[in-house]
Write a sequence for this structure.
């Protein structure tokens, strides 16, 4: 793997999100698939099985992109960062409602916002000469 900032961040974040997704299943026994309140990962982050699967999918996308090339990593970092920014903001309004199908809590919102800052910062701020998509 090259020293591309996008590849490094995508690979590290991908591995961490895969691990978080797997560990989440240890605390979601008996929790409904889309329960609005979940088990607590590390005693602070609420998760349910759907939330765990989302972490696994996001982690896999980041890891595969990070291992592939800088362009793929840049695109996935930017996309996942944008999704996490949106989720971090909207999440505050979902808590306590039936729409909270990921069992989000306040700690989750701040972690999603922090992830968004790093992923978007690297995706948009580094390697500007690497296009996000191939030319048609």
């Amino acid at each position: 793997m090259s020293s591309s900032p996008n590849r490094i961040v995508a690979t590290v974040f991908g591995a961490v999100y895969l691990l978080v997704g797997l560990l989440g299943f240890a605390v979601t026994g008996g929790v409904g698939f889309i329960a609005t309140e979940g088990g607590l990962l590390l005693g602070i982050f609420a998760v349910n099985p759907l939330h765990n699967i989302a972490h696994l999918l996001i982690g896999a996308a980041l890891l595969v992109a990070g291992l592939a090339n800088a362009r793929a990593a840049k695109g996935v970092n930017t996309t996942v960062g944008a999704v996490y920014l949106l989720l971090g903001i909207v999440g505050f309004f979902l808590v306590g409602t039936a729409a909270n199908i990921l069992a989000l809590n306040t700690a989750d919102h701040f972690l999603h916002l922090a992830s968004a800052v790093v992923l978007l910062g690297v995706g948009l701020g580094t390697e500007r000469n690497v296009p996000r998509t191939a030319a048609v």
Q: What stands out?
A: The CA atoms of residues 49 and 73 lie 27 Å apart. Residues 5-125 form one domain. The first helix runs from residue 5 to 24. The chain has one domain: 5-125.
